[in-house]
Write a structure and sequence with these properties.
The chain has 79 residues and is α+β, with helices and mostly antiparallel strands. The chain has two helices and four strands; from the N terminus they run E-E-H-E-H-E.
Length: 79
């Protein structure tokens, strides 16, 4: 694998097995009315100091599943 570094140079990386986690940015889905109600992105959820009584998690990524599990274990009723 050849990786281009921030300074523009390239570095070759050799390995037997590889997992590439590129990361992502939160996106507000195009759901009618969503901007009219309070919501969190995954980033907001990690920065909160409150646990909601009920929480709906919309998403199919590992981050969505992890947040749903964490809030459920902290006492939220998660959908």
């Amino acid at each position: 694998l050849v990786v281009r570094l921030a300074d523009g140079t390239e570095q070759e990386v050799a390995f037997e097995r590889c997992l590439i986690g590129t990361g992502a940015s939160p996106v507000i889905p195009p759901i009618a009315g969503i901007r009219d109600v309070p919501y969190w992105t995954s980033t907001d959820a990690l920065e909160t100091d409150s646990i909601p009584e009920r929480l709906a998690v919309i998403g199919s990524s590992v981050v969505a599943v992890e947040l749903a599990q964490a809030f459920a274990r902290l006492g939220s009723r998660v959908t």
